[in-house]
Amino acid sequence: RSRKVTTVCNGKREIWTDYEQAKAYFLEMMMTTEGEEHDRAECVYIQIMHGLDECSDEDE
């Protein structure tokens, strides 16, 4: 079962039709980056893991 998730990371908004694909993408990004870029990816990844439909690295 797959559901849609919208991510905003580094100002780039993406709509994923595959939840698992989004999760894998941000996990990969976390593993291959450091510093601010890593923190942004981690922020989005954690929100995806919590099952949010809208995940953003921006502080509300």
Question: Which oligomeric state applies?
Answer: single chain
Count of the domains: 1
Overall shape: globular
Decide which structural class fits the backbone.
alpha+beta
Query: How many strands, what sense, and barrel or not for the largest sheet?
Result: 3 strands, mixed
The whole-number mean of residue pLDDT values reads 94
Count every helix, treating DSSP H or I runs of 4 or more residues as helices.
Answer: 2
Strand order of the largest sheet: 2-1-3
Residue ranges: pLDDT <50 for 5 or more in a row? none
Total count of strands:
3
Q: Secondary-structure element sequence?
A: EEHHE
Helical content stands at 40-55%
Beginning-to-end CA distance, first to last residue = 30 Å
- The proportion of strand residues reads 15-25%
Q: State Rg.
A: 10 Å
